Amino acid sequence: MDIAGSMNITFTADIDHLVGHRPSVLYWVVQPGSNVGGIGAGLIRMVRPWNEWLIVWGYDINEPEPVIDHAAAEQIVRNLIGDPALDITITGTSLWGNNEMYATRLQKGRVFAAGDAIHRHPPSNGLGSNTSIQDAYNLAWKLAAVIRGQAGPELLETYTAERAPVAKQIVLRANKSGREFGELFTALGVMDARSEEEMRAQIEERKAQTPRGEEKRRAISAAMELKNYEFNAHGVEMGQFYTSTAVIPDGTTRPAPTRDPELYYEPSTVPGSPLPHVWVGDARQTFSTLDLAPSSQFTLFTGIAGQAWADAVPDVAAALGLPVAAVVIGPGRRYTDLYFDWERLRGVDEDGALLVRPDKIVAWRSMTGADDPAGALTAALRSVLSRTT
Ligand SMILES: Cc1cc2nc3c(=O)[nH]c(=O)nc-3n(C[C@H](O)[C@H](O)[C@H](O)COP(=O)(O)OP(=O)(O)OC[C@H]3O[C@@H](n4cnc5c(N)ncnc54)[C@H](O)[C@@H]3O)c2cc1C
């Protein structure tokens, strides 16, 4: 069910004089009415620089749906941009609703749901597409492995276990971010303004050399600080952690965050974590560890002292009928730890091993070498893949 009304209006207009000197993809605009419905404030979004645009504007969900013909759309665009004479051509309009809904079960029998269908939220935080793509990454390799007979069907149940918590997290975060624009409107003093003039006077007051002006500046600064949770929330975007039978715990827990976990992503290789990005390579070419673990295979990372793990990989892969590749990181090898970041982040000894799933999630790790690397690796893969035979 919709909880707030929004509209998209696409148009062409030359507003270079307003944005040419401060190029951006998104411009947030505080205008009379921009706290009603919508996504927290008025939004002007660049489609093509600098004459093709999309605006997002809100309407009161408790009122009948507005009829947005071209004349009404032109008026809304001119009001939002603040130029009553602006020459514009409307190219499209549509109404849509904000939601705060997430699914707790993503599979029923042979049917799997992904994307916006399982996490419905406003575009705040820009989490929609990337989370939807992550759903697909999570599901695709599991479906492929089961269909090819490389995994037991129980593997498919880990899709809900791993992705439903992410759906909940982003739906709640995006809605909270939208609502937190309210702090800015309160700080500016526009919530109680009864007319456009009063609203403008309230906004102007932030410039005054008075105690109220000072108080307002402090409140605006605090409200803007909150917006970091929308625009700089790297922990929300990248700090996902999975718990399921497709991940083998090693008895360790995730390191306690040293900074705000919503704002800061702290890489880790505790099984269930995304593989950390590190630049490796040689004097001529650099690679991200993320690109060395492609979606078509399992990838085992080790160091020079862990060569026995790498040597075991071809036989294990052949015996299980599964694509598995090894990456050895160290000087003199194809992938040198260029900035010593891998040693800092790998979380295991040089002779240890990290097993990474096709969706770039650490499935299992061994802190050190093993007496029987092939046996240990086979047992890990069989467990991750729910293979009982
Ligand atoms: C204004 C706005 C700004 C956004 N900004 C960002 C952003 O900055 N970053 C970001 O990551 N995300 C953003 N998003 C969110 C992003 O667009 C969505 O999360 C993403 O498109 C969801 O992908 P999806 O494949 O799950 O669904 P959709 O893209 O909606 O695809 C579903 C498809 O299914 C089709 N369909 C529906 N019913 C049927 C049927 N019965 N039979 C056949 N086909 C059907 C639809 O036509 C559609 O093509 C934004 C969204 C909006 C509205």
Structure explained in plain terms:
The protein is an alpha+beta fold. It has three domains: 4-97, D-Amino Acid Oxidase, subunit A, domain 2 (D-Amino Acid Oxidase, Chain A, domain 2, 2-Layer Sandwich); 99-240; 279-384, Glutaredoxin (3-Layer(aba) Sandwich). It has eleven helices and 15 strands. The chain has helices at residues 16-19, 70-81, 128-147, 158-188, 196-204, 211-226, 228-231, 234-238, 307-320, 341-345, 373-384, and strands spanning 4-13, 26-29, 42-48, 52-59, 88-98, 101-102, 107-108, 111-112, 119-120, 279-281, 286-288, 298-303, 324-329, 353-356, 362-366. The protein has a five-stranded antiparallel sheet, covered by helices on one side. The protein has a four-stranded mixed sheet with strand order 13-12-14-15, covered by helices on one side. Strands 6-9 form a two-stranded antiparallel sheet. It is elongated, with a radius of gyration of 26 Å. The relative contact order is 0.10. Bound molecules: flavin-adenine dinucleotide (FAD). Residues 8, 56, 115-116, 123, 126-130, 132 line the site of flavin-adenine dinucleotide (FAD).
What is the gist of this entry?
The chain is built from eleven helices and 15 strands.
- How many discrete domains? 3
Q: Strand order within the widest sheet? A: 2-3-4-1-5
> How many strand elements?
15
- Biggest sheet features: 5 strands, antiparallel
Stretches where pLDDT is under 50 for at least 5 consecutive residues are none
Principal-axis shape: elongated
